[in-house]
Request: fold
Amino acid sequence: MNTLLIKNISLKNRIVDVLIEGNVFKQIEPNIKAGKVDKIIDGTNRAIIQPFYNMHTHSSMTLLRGYGDDMRLFQWLSEYIWPQEAKLTPEDIYNGTRLAIVEMIRSGTVFFLDMYWHHSEIIRAVEEMKIRASIGVSFIEERGKREIEQNIKFINGFVSPLERISINVAPHAIYTVGKDLYQELYMISKVKGLKLSTHLAETMQEVKSCKKANNNLTPTEFLESIGVLDDNTIAAHCVHLTEHDAEILSSKGVTLVHNPCANMKLASGSFNVPLINKYDLKVCLGTDGTSSNNNLSMLEEMKFAALLAKVSYKDSSLLSANQVFAWATKNGADAMGINSGRIKEGRLADCLIVNLNNERLIPNNNLISNWVYSADSRCIETVICDGNILMENHIIPNEEEILEKVKRKIM
Ligand SMILES: [Zn+2]
Reply:
């Protein structure tokens, strides 16, 4: 079993050594006498911090970055995104996912929950680049019966190649998937023990159309009425919620994923943090795809989340740095049932080594405050996921080759 010792590193303002054995934090205390280890990293003037779990993205949309900005959601989807997506080949998806993973690693993310097409290519990229992921097998009824059948067959036959890779069942949204298919997919997710991820209540338009078509039920009420919400559900966006919606989401134990950048860029609205807090809802953070963000930085996502909440509800005490940091880190790991998200003995070894000499982290009055409001990706030197080093001293293996493959413009 491989052993890695990080010496003299700051963990919550205490200088410790961190011994990783295999994929687990074996020992965390000052001056560990470890005997012979495979590798030692000097942690002097550095801090160890939990990495990010990006709970909603469409990874290979990196290929559509900067394509079709500054327009209304429906026009953007129907005239720009969907026609381009239809042209993407499996090889494009593989290369786009590798670009996304480079970006995620460099900005401190070790897990992403994905929702896209050509899932086998995404799994291939994830497997090679040693990151964690749950790959959404996506469903949109308009794409035809054949694809739906193939996807269901894929889910039923799926055996994960590695513990860090899983799949989830991903009906896209209530306006692209009807009641019967939602219910069928829900049952499949139950039988297979998989998460069900979906977009929910992203725009006012979605709420209006849902109410019109379903006896005045909101999207959340509608999903409850057809029996597909429970503590296995991961619902992205949840921007437009009523008090009754919040009650439902709380009683069912649904996990919400906040995507502030995409919500702002597409003018979808503000996540209702006062309501979320009132009902103590389970919340994680996600970037959404790069064509509505336009990057995959969870550092930026934390800051935008905090600032958006404060300005939307005219309360600068709303959504503290500590709260949004928990949304971006341990809440994601907990929602996925991954035994990580904390730097603790016995937990899976996911962590970042950040450089406390970076100007954005000086002075170090409060690391979490600096991390949320001041830091950028340059502060991150080394990224460890499941005991593997994904980036060491800013170097990601094969990065140049990966970037070279996707420099060609698509338009
Ligand atoms: Zn999305």
